[in-house]
Structures are given as structure tokens and as C-alpha cells.
């Protein structure tokens, strides 16, 4: 018998959509935790393997225990990785742009000598360039 629009009430459509979105939310959390396991440098390879086995064979309990045990520092590891990637990107852009540190300092000294920037601005920019 074919299902018509009257045999599938609105509540069933809502519940089907809810389960569908919860399933994708679960997949998203699972991928985030697996990425965090591999991102973490404070765990050995064996400990990472144990966490993966725990999450694969007991997924709900494994995810819950991981979030309780290591969930607080997941964001810190993610931010640290993003900052590292940003600094590597900035270094690549500086290298690609072809302007060396010495030429940047020379340009900065010219600006200071012409009076376009103050000594405080010069020292702050110099510290930023040298860091």
C-alpha cells in the first residue's frame, strides 16, 4: 500500500526530521572528537589508539567519557592549532611578498625620519616586525 500525505501526519514528519538532524549532529560530534584525539600532542600513540577503540566499540559511552575527561581542553587545542596555522600562513605571505625584515625596518625608519610616525609608534612597529 502506498503512503499518501494523509497517512503520514505532520508530527511524524517533524520526528523524522528531528532524528535526521540528531544523526548528523552525532556524526559531527564524533568527527570533532576523533580530530581532537589526533590533534592532541599530550597523548601517546597507544593512548590515542585506546580512545579510538573505546569510541568505535562503545560509541555513546566513549564519547560521553571523552567529553567528561578531556572535553574542557578541546577548545584550547583547537585554538592553538588555528593560531599555529595562522602564523604559518602569515610567514608564507611575508615570504611570498618578498619584503625582508631589513627592508621593512628601513621603510619604518624613513617614516620616523620624515615625521610621519612618532618614536613610540616606531618602537612598537619595530617590535612587531622583529617578533
Proportion of β residues? under 5%
Shape: elongated
Radius of gyration, taken over Cα atoms and rounded to an integer in Å: 27 Å
Helix content: over 70%
* Class inferred from helices and paired strands: mainly alpha
Provide the succession of SSEs.
HHHHHH
Low-confidence stretches: none
Q: How would you state the average pLDDT, rounded?
A: 87
Q: Main beta sheet: strand number and arrangement?
A: none
Figure out the total of helices. Answer: 6
Number of DSSP E strands: 0
Distance from first to last alpha carbon? 73 Å
Q: Can you lay out the helices and strands and say which pair or pack?
A:
Blueprint: H1 10-39, H2 45-57, H3 59-70, H4 74-97, H5 101-114, H6 119-130
Tell me what the structure shows.
This protein is an all-alpha fold and 131 residues long. Helices cover 80% and strands 0% of the residues. It is built from six helices and no strands. Helix 2 packs across helix 3 and helix 5 packs antiparallel against helix 6. The protein starts with 9 loop residues before the first helix and ends with a helix.
